[in-house]
């Protein structure tokens, strides 16, 4: 889409701005419900393990792109 519009992507990556919606889904809560997951003994370690891995593997759910006019 960018190339068809005359832009050249210089960098593309994904970002997880918050792992909470994913963890809410995994705990059978409605994502974006602001459910209090702080007392769940499993989700704390899961969050610590997943967050850097998701970033490293570009598996985030928000797409970022830097492009310049060709």
Polypeptide structure, described:
The structure is a single chain. This protein has a two-stranded antiparallel sheet with strand order 1-2. It is of the alpha+beta class and about 70 residues long. The model has no long low-confidence stretch (mean pLDDT about 85). It has helices spanning about 20-25, 45-55; strands at about 5-15, 60-70. It is about 30% helix and about 25% strand. It has one domain. The chain contains two helices and two strands, in the order E-H-H-E.
Radius of gyration: 16 Å
Separate helix tally:
2
Query: Which class best fits the helix and strand makeup?
Result: alpha+beta
DSSP strand tally: 2
Beta-strand share of residues = 15-25%
Mean pLDDT: 86
What's the SSE blueprint?
Blueprint: E1 7-15, H1 20-26, H2 43-56, E2 62-69
Antiparallel strand pairs: 1-2
């Amino acid at each position: 889409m960018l190339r068809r519009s005359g832009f050249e992507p210089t960098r593309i990556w994904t970002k997880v701005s918050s792992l909470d919606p994913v963890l809410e889904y995994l705990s059978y809560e409605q994502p974006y419900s602001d459910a209090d997951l702080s007392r769940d003994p499993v989700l704390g370690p899961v969050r610590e393990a997943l967050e850097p891995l998701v970033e490293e593997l570009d598996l985030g759910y928000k797409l970022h792109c830097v492009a310049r006019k060709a």
